[in-house]
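Hey team,

Filing this mostly as a record. A colleague (T.K.) asked me to run one chain through the structure pipeline before their review meeting, and I want the input and output archived in the tracker in case anyone asks later how it was produced. No errors, nothing strange. Just documentation.

Input sequence:
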Amino acid sequence: MKENIVKRFKEVFGAEGDIRTFFAPGRVNLIGEHTDYNGGHVFPCALTIGTYAAVCRREDRKLRFYSMNFEASGVYESSLDDLKPAKEAGWTNYPKGVMWAFEQKGFSIPCGLDLMLYGNIPNGSGLSSSASVEVMTGYILKCLFGFDVTLQDIALIGQYAENNFNGVNCGIMDQFAIAMGKKENAIFLDTSDLSYEYAPILLKNAKIVISCSNKKRGLGDSKYNERRSECEEALAQLKTVVDIQSLGELDEEQFDRYQDAIKREVCRRRAKHAVYENQRTLKAVEALKANDVEQFGRLMNDSHVSLRDDYEVTGIELDTLVEEAWKTEGVIGSRMTGAGFGGCTVSIVKDEAVDAFIRQVGGAYRKKIGYDADFYVVDIGDGPSEI
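Output structure:
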């Protein structure tokens, strides 16, 4: 991969300087969906698929971007003196946003860059291609210019860029999981205070299979921000009867006791999902520690039902993938993952059932939806690195 991207970099940019190459993973969240902006827990892991970059410093302030995934778009030019979001800038708004955020945080970028990307994360899949680009950009800036930032700082700067430059009100999970990834471990993260622990994922005789619906979605145009505001409305009303700062502070019994304070039924359901999903995540990590993968799978299934019925972020594509997975022998658990409204599902499938799973779920999906899903048997990988 390194040789290919450097070769293409030289063809596109004609650069003869010090070309450096980097990788940042994608991520999948095993359980704990739409809890990260509600002060709850999440349980994501970094993947061995992700985003590759080749980069070279320039003598001037110019920025030149090129993606091997969107070659027809050609080279996009910008400048460190013109770091503003623009619809026509497409994917380059993500690296530009991080550069803008570094400047906002007091890190002055001394010169422009030529930057080429190649990603093997399915675009629009919900495996965080955008956060992967953000974390990698932050890591590149740290390595090229010696900025004194930790990997956790890079995650927070990436989130800041997505919120304030790209206008997506995302939580911290995606950037944190990618920046802090550790091979064969998921990250049990408390989003209320960023305390975390690594939890080994030891799936004996089973694999993680990602099913990509191939329904494209854009977080900014989705109902993501609407769900956030519904949760905020529920929280404000709960605060009138119980002393909490986030929905993640409640357990199921407490929520059931106080839920009548939430005036709108739709907000009550959104808040119920946030509370119950957080508790499912706590139970899921305990189940893994006890080597009870079957219980982990049941909690994954319950998570999907809640996301479908209470949070309403699944849709026919994701529901079809999950419901067909549940019918397939050898499936331990399956649920949508990511923001929803398209994207992917994550399933734990016994080794001997993986081929049949892909065949059966894929066939049923094509028959019902009219086009193919893609399947990825994935491994859990490390965070960003120079390669």
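Quick notes for T.K.: Residues 215 and 342 are 5 Å apart (CA to CA). The chain has a mean pLDDT of 94.
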